[in-house]
Structure formats: C-alpha cells, structure tokens
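thread from #wetlab-drylab

HS: before we spend reagent money on co-crystallization trials with 2-aminohexanedioic acid, can we at least see a predicted complex? here's what I'd submit
DV: go for it
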Amino acid sequence: MAERYKNYIGGRWIEAKSGRTFENRNPANRRDLIGLFPASGAEDVDAAVSAAKNAFAGWRLLPAPKRGEILFRVGDLLRKRKEEIARAMTREMGKILKETRGDVQEGIDTAFYAAGEGRRLFGETTPSELPDKFAMSVRLPLGVCALITPWNFPVAIPTWKLFPALLCGNTVVLKPAEDTPHSAVKLFEILEESGAPPGVANLVHGSGEIAGASLVRHPDVTLVSFTGSTAVGREIAAVCGQSLKRVALEMGGKNAQIVMEDADLRLALEGVLWGAFGTTGQRCTATSRLILHRDIRKELTEMLVARAEKIKIGDGMDETVEMGPLINEAARKKVHGYVQIGKDEGARLVAGGTIYEEGEWVHGYFYRPTIFDQVGPKMRIAQEEIFGPVLSIIEIKSFEEAVEALNATPYGLSSSIYTRDVARAFRAMRDIEAGITYVNGPTIGAEVHLPFGGVKETGNGHREAGTTVYDIFTEWKSIYIDFSGKLQKAQIDSVE
Ligand code: UN1
C-alpha cells in the first residue's frame, strides 16, 4: 500500500476534502512510488487561507525577535535532518545527493539569515522639516501570502519565501510543485516541530490549474510570490493586476557564460560543466549558452565535448553519479524536441542529443549531456528556455559582440564572464542585462544573503533573498509624531 500524505492546515494534517490524490514517483525509476498526495480543490485552499487569516491576528503581534527564534529552531532542525531530507529529495526529483544536500543547506542558510533579521528589520528615522516633530518609517506585514514554488529546488525556494514572509509577521499558504510534494511535507514537519503556532504556515498540495489558481484568486490573499515559467507568471500577474494584489515573480532564464581569448580555459571548462549540466540543466540559473571568442572556440569546444561525454549518468543516490534524470517524461520530450529544432535550424550537434536508456536506466527519464556548436544568437535553441542538459555554443569576435549576444534574449537572470582583463570584467558588470553577473565563476551558485532575481522577462522588479526580500514581504508605513502642542503645517509653516 502506498503511503498517503496530507495537507497541513491550521496545525493539522488532513486529506483533501474530496479524498482525491495524485501519485509521486521517482524520476530515476518510475516503478518506485513515493506516495499519494492530496489533489486539493478550491475548498481545501479556502480552509488553508482562512486558517492563515485567523492566525495572522496573533502572529503579527508576536515581536519579530521572537518570530526569529522560531526560525532559529527551524534552521537547527533542518541541519539535524539534512541528510534524510536530501535523500528523500534525490528520490523525489532526481538531482544528485551532493546537490540535494546543497539545496537543504540553502534552506538552513535562509533560516538563520531570516532569524537574525528578527533583531533588525530596520525602518528609518529622519529629521522632520518642522520643529518638535519626529519622523520615522516602519515595516508592517501584509497578511496572508500565497507561495507557489517549483520542483527544481524543493526546499531552498520554498524557504526563500516562507522564512522571510513569516519573519515579517505574515502568515502563509504554500502550494508546492506536484513533482515534489514530499520535500514540502518534510519542511512542514519541521515547522510543526519548531513550535510555530497553528495556522501561520499552511501547506496545500495539488495542481497549478486547480489549487494554485484558486489560491491566486482568493480574495483574502494579499500577496502572491511565484517561481516558475514566464508563461504561468504572466497569467498570475494578470489575475493579480485585476485584484491589485502584490505579486513577486521569478521566472525563466537563458543564461550565458562568455569566455574571452585571455581567459583561464581550464577554469572556464570546469565552470561551464557545472553550470550547464549540474541539476541536469534544470535550474533557472543554468548555463544554456556558451559564448566563445573565436581564438579559443575550437580548443575549448574539444575540451568540453571530451568531458561532457564522460559525465556519469544515473540514479543520484549513487555518490559516483554526476548527473541524474530529468524530472518527468514531458520534460524529456521537451528537451528532445529542442534537439530536433536545433538540428533543423542548422546548428551542429557535437555531443549527446539522445535519450539515455542503458540497462536499468530504461525506467527513468535520462538524457545525455548535449552540446550544439555553430549556434546563431537568434536561433530558437539560443533564445528559448529548454530546462535540460543542452548547451548552445555561439562564436564571437570581440568583447562588444559577446555582450551583445548575451543580451539578445528576452530573459535576464544570471550571466558570467571568464577573462583576466579587469577593464573587461568591469564593463561586463555594467553592460550585461541580468540580475546576477559572475566573474570567473559559472552562472549558478547564488548565496542567500544577496538579492536574487532577474531583469526583462525573468521577473517583475522584485528581488528575493538578501535584504531586498524584506521589501517584498512588508508594507512601509511612515509615521509623524508632533510634540509641539500646536498644529504645524508641512510645506507651509516650514517655508520662510
Ligand atoms: C534556481 O535555479 O531556480 O544559484 C535557483 C543557484 C542556486 C539557486 C538556483 N543557489 O543556482
């Protein structure tokens, strides 16, 4: 009998009211059934939002340092259960253990950062233009926040939203991706154990179309924070535009690594291997374009192809495996479809390009590390997000051309340049259109205490992580205290 997992609403584990469930299977071996999870409907979302709304009344008044103490406990518990959660995550979504441990670590880092923020959460004080008058600004919570998260970072991304939201005094309803409900259950077991009051954090499983959509439309939700595709983000933004909910979006990427002719090629090679094929290319920050100066293109491409072909593919539970499966069959079809598009567009396939189904791997969604050479910057494989282990090599003749090629997509999340020329590095930091730029490092590897997010169609102007996430989850209030004992008129009495 498959284990039946539940929603977490108002401090209780409960099934969907309809009793309906969906299956969660291991992408490395689809015969391995992890469990059944509630296929929640609008009525379950309603119960979760009302639990969050009720809990908000008390939670917002608990001093922020006390809310922070709960998050310190959450961080401790995550640390204690890191290995267990990493293993469950690898089984559930396929990335290798080293990376799922990193995913949990990102949650631990976020917990401690948010917890410390409980004793900061700074506002400002500033002189008033009038005598005997005091002026300051403070941050206040918004209310019930809806958090909708993807499967590629099943602990890290929910924590980026959950912990700052809670620290600021909001209450939340999380709707995790259907491919990774188990990791979300683990996270909520920890929240329960940490002593967070019932109703402050609620978990509702189910599909985006039903559970996600009813959450976004719910009138008692004041903010929606979403990480996922640009197509879905646009739909969410449209709904929130009508209802005037605050909406923070983190969406697609088409990140590029530039390698100039003066770069350390050995370093650039390690960077692109990790950036393009880490997490099987399924990161918003993954390197999907490699922009090479013509003087080093041949040499670096040969080095890269030789290494890519040696990448060990298999079940991420095996510590010697370097690349796990794609998340599901639809993802594999999409990746394979783009390989065909690349060939049709006239790019030259120099590595991979085929499904990997040797031996026992026939039961998983594996794909070979794939490299296209001679890609034009406007080809679809250079423009559209593939979300798989497919890398497109674009040749350029100058630094200016490299930056122009890098900027020539609708996205702007992460970027990277390998060069030994400090002037070029600084020009790249200024001229690349992206939320993140790495110098002599790959496009992946963001740390939780710096702003995370992108420009153009990657985002809508907000930044998670860093100090900036506290702007997403708070309302500013300006406060004036007049202790002059008389009516003082700003802009009028203050003018000579
Ligand atoms: C994502 O790709 O969805 O910088 C998030 C990184 C990770 C976070 C990635 N720390 O790749």
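DV: The two ends are 82 Å apart (CA to CA).
HS: ok that's useful, forwarding to the group
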